[in-house]
């Protein structure tokens, strides 16, 4: 019989080490992409939910506008029948009513589309929706310094971290390609044992142990190593450009979102007063029409302006919420906890915009 065993252990093979290092960075890049996808899902679901509420409020104001203008149209018809106004005012009211009706139909369709989008993300069709409480506070971003947000984003944004890990992986891959020029050193150990019979039928036994070092020096590989180095160097340049682009985009986006959130707060505050002013203007215009000092066109314009203010106010609040979440995502701080906190401000009992559309003059939430 004869048997043997041989073991080989690389002592120095730089290519394997750098390839392992590159794979580690690629794993970290994949983890960063996963975290980014998780944040994007949080943002997508929240955006889809508030888009449904936004569309629902648009339907509410569109219906209220349609009802109010229909009432003006009917009154104009009655006043014309008794000879108090010209037929042109009836035509004006009718045209405004038809326009309001078409806008309400479009709003109904937008609501259905928004619900389908939310259902696509959640797997459930939204029937009953909880409204955002009217006393939801529109707080300023903390800290109130765009540079601080920008610094946090550069350090924690998952897009930047993924690009950074990919750049590091490309660096390691380039080193691995260059290391093909380097020698490799291996330790080999073998053991062999045999027991054989010779021609005289005598048993001959023996064993042999060998330990050796093997040094391999690549003198010429046909240009393959150089080609691999050039390829990896090009990939490294592309990864560096991608990293710089992502950093620049995140910086600009973070600062822009910071300014946008603050603008949303100012806009909502201004529209809150606009609602009250336009409601007063609408009441005065209606009264003036009754005594003959205002015409039907002015009444219809006042009706539309009031309900547009209601719709814009609701949109400003939803814009604030979505942009605040986007700001946190840009900074890399968005977590499921943000959705939980936001959910605490939703209530099935909160009336939403219909409390104002039903000619309510204040912004108080009757559920509070």
Explain how this protein is built.
The protein has about 375 residues and is mainly alpha-helical. It has a single domain (about 15-180, about 240-355), classed as Outer membrane efflux proteins (OEP), CATH 1.20.1600.10. Helix content is about 70%, strand content about 10%. The chain has helices at about 15-80, 85-120, 145-155, 160-180, 225-290, 295-330, 335-345, 355, and strands at about 1-10, 130, 185-195, 205-215, 345. The strands form two sheets. The protein has a three-stranded antiparallel sheet, with no helix packed on it. The longest helix is centred in the N-terminal third of the chain and has 68 residues, at about 15-80.
- What is the gyration radius calculated from CA atoms? 37 Å
**Tally of helical runs:** 8
> CATH superfamily membership, which one?
Outer membrane efflux proteins (OEP)
**Domains (count):** 1
Largest sheet: 3 strands, antiparallel
| Strand order in the largest sheet | 1-3-4
> What is the approximate shape?
rod-shaped
Q: Stretches where pLDDT falls below 50 for ≥5 residues?
A: 360-368
CATH topology: Outer membrane efflux proteins (OEP)
Q: Which CATH architecture is right? A: Up-down Bundle
Write the element-wise H/E pattern from the N-terminal end onward.
EHHEHHEEHHHEH
Subcellular location: Cell outer membrane
Keywords: Cell outer membrane, Coiled coil, Membrane, Transmembrane, Transmembrane beta strand, Transport
InterPro entries: OMP_efflux, T1SS_OMP_TolC, TolC-like
GO molecular function: efflux transmembrane transporter activity; porin activity
